[in-house]
Amino acid sequence: MAANGRTEMEVGADGVAVITICNPPVNSLSIDVLLSLKESYEEALQRKDIKAIVVTGKGGKFSGGFDISSFGNLHIEQPKVGYISIDIITETLEGATKPSVAAIDGLALGGGLEVAMACHARISTPTAQLGLPELQLGIIPGFGGTQRLPRLVGLTKSLEMMLLSKPIKGEEAHQLGLVDSLVSPNDLVNAARRWALDICELKRPWIKSLYKTDKLEPLGEAREILNFARAQARKQAANLEHPLVCIDVIEEGIVSGPRAGLWKEANAFQSLLFSDTCKSLLHVFFSQRATSKVPGATDLGLMPRKITKVAILGGGLMGSGITTAMILSNYPVLLKEVNEKFLNAGIDRIKANLQSRVRKGKMTEERYEKALSLVTGTLGYEKFKEVDLVIEAVIENVKLKQQIFADLEKYCPSHCVLATNTSTIDLNLIGEKTKSQDRIVGAHFFSPAHVMPLLEIVRTQHTSAQVVVDLLDVGKRIKKTPIVVGNCTGFAVNRMFFPYTQSALLFVDYGMDVYKIDRACTKFGMPMGPFRLADLVGFGVAVATGMQYLENFPERVYKSVLIPLMMEDKRAGEATRKGFYKYEDKRKATPDPEIMTYIQKSRSMAGVTPDPELMKLTDKDIVEMVFFPVINEACRVLDEGIAVKASDLDIASIFGMGFPPYRGGVMLWGDSIGAKYIHDKLQEWAKRYGSSFEPCSFLAERAAKGILLSAPSNQVKARL
Questions:
Q1: Taking the mean position of all CA atoms in its chain, how far away is CA 597?
Q2: What is the spatial distance between Cα 470 and Cα 389, in angstroms, rounded to a whole number?
Q3: How far apart (Å, rounded) are the C-alpha atoms in residues 322 and 320?
Q4: What is the pLDDT of residues 477-523, one digit of tens each?
Q5: Measured between alpha carbons, how far is residue 263 from residues 27, 148, 212, 252 in Å?
Q6: Coil, strand or helix: which one is 30?
């Protein structure tokens, strides 16, 4: 079997061996690389002509960390628990009888930083990124990071870096003492060689990070810091175990000494590798990278065309958010509105979006001015002859959109991509009055568009593969995760999550408590429950969307009158300061007992008697009743070929609706429960509460055959 990466060793006339990690693109640490590193070290220690060692990475990157694709095999490839952490990193590298210096450029993340911390000194470029982001994958640093980082930067900073997966730049690392010196990339290896020889000649200290204690707080103070971190972790990640495990492992090293800490870390790392959380977060990691592989588009050898100028139609909430996302990635934008007043309001929104970044320290004043200078306002179409991409973001009105696309066809160059940010309207309807259906595509952003990471690219049967490839490229450049979906009402995300609010409304008519439903959903890990979400989106949007579904899927829509009743009394959600909650200051939502009046009226109009069984439900039952219909709809979306693969729907649910990533997305979570259980529950509710719960044929078939919901379907002819 071909080796998965290696290290190379070169010995200079000065007696310094330079060991280079070679495993492009980011020099990840596969088992092969680590074993090769051990062999290079052993050779360097035996050779008489070698006085000292420098470890560096090929191509301007030290190492991006342990090779994630090898995670599953670690228990097979590692001869024993702790072999990498103790035998290689601690005994061979840190315990070497010749001094070693890490020369860090580009990245030293995860295992990469752990290798560097085992060297006896570290030299870095000012812009290198150093961090331990393992917790993002449901595990903890496993090669000594939990023990060495606190000893190099102190407890508080090391907890922040690990628990928040927050990397730092070389400059800050130097101030903290994580690196010993900063140099330019050109001088990096030479400076490291000199430093290593200085250690040999006793001109500089020979430090083993594992035994440093000067940065550690006294035991009582350390325990206070750790307990505070535990309380924060329980509050911010209530359903997650691994942040608490990380804190326990750090504490073990402080209380019982670093060797005991290393052993506890090695065992904890090994068991977390097999946890559901790690499995889910790895699934998300790989699925996110797979969304840009689209059959019939990215497999045809097409290159994305250069998009140099973008036009946005409409400066409302969505238009201004999309413009902000574009200018933050240096795209010049032409913003069109119907009159001066609307145009100025749009530009003010963009300014507010950018100023918020300045206030948070994410942007300098200079960068703010530069970004703002990329926006040009216009009231007409004259300048549209220069644009390569137009995104329409006006109100959801079919006739208006049809007129706009007819105009765009007239004024834009023939290569220009014509995109719409509609969230529900059929694209064929929008482009009905044009002859340019091959370049009409959906570019559905989620609100707020400059913050939310998902971009739904909607392709009709007429949209050319070139246009899809172009938009995928733009999505990547504006730092969005794009998913390509087929054309239907609500596309993938909104259609999949339409039952989220619908089921909740039905169960309220049948006697369930609004706030209990929301609490169960947030406890499960959602950013907000269906009723708080309806308040945020606004009842006007909720009703308009509901009408679209009623028109297209009448057999599975529950016609709740609760929201229309509230709207009659000018309660329309957060914007009116009253919806399911009341909002008195700074968006803080408070339960409002007044809603009972509307609920009772809604129940009597629906002719429904509250079901006493629903009052006794646990949070788990409520979550199932709200989310199983979502899984059912996701199965339909997959079955109809609206989505290419189940993992795309997982990413859509996480990045579009805030589904908890540590559960892996709706389809993976559904598979963890089992198709049969979901199917049987839905069938039971369909008998009791109506046809909107009826399991679809895709789900029924998989339940009967015991097939995973996410298993590829060979029968389905994708609508893409």
A1: 40
A2: 9
A3: 6
A4: 999 999 999 998 889 999 999 999 999 999 999 999 999 999 999 99
A5: 26, 13, 18, 10
A6: coil
In whole angstroms, what is the distance from residue 214 CA to residue 225 CA?
17
**C-alpha–C-alpha distance, residues 502 and 492, integer Å:** 16
φ/ψ of residue 379, rounded to 5: -110, -10
CA-to-CA distance for 8 and 146, rounded, in angstroms? 28
d(CA 700, CA 680): 9
Which one of the listed residues 10, 42, 43, 134 is annotated catalytic?
A: 134
8 as an active site residue: the answer is no
The type of residue at 19 is I
In order of 55, 63, 64, 65, 124, the CA distances from 60 in angstroms are 13, 9, 11, 15, 11
Tokens of 394: 């006006």
Selection from 308, 297, 157 nearest residue 229 by Cα:
157
Catalytic residue at 134?
Answer: yes
Q: How far apart are CA 545 and CA 564, in angstroms?
A: 13
Q: Assess contact for 665 and 284: CB atoms under 8 A.
A: yes
Note the pLDDT tens digit of each residue in 190-210: 999 999 999 999 999 999 999
One of 94, 114, 265, 337 is an active-site residue; which one?
A: 114
Q: Give the total residue count for the chain.
A: 720
Strand partners, 313: 336, 392
Q: At what angle do helices 276-290 and 666-673 cross, to 10 degrees?
A: 140
Rounded CA gap, 118 and 143, in Å? 10
> Which amino acid is located at 278 in the chain?
C
Instruction: Please say if the pLDDT value at position 73 is more than 90.
Output: no
Place of tokens 């009905």: 432
Task: State how far the Cα of 163 lies from the Cα of 697, in Å rounded to an integer.
Answer: 43
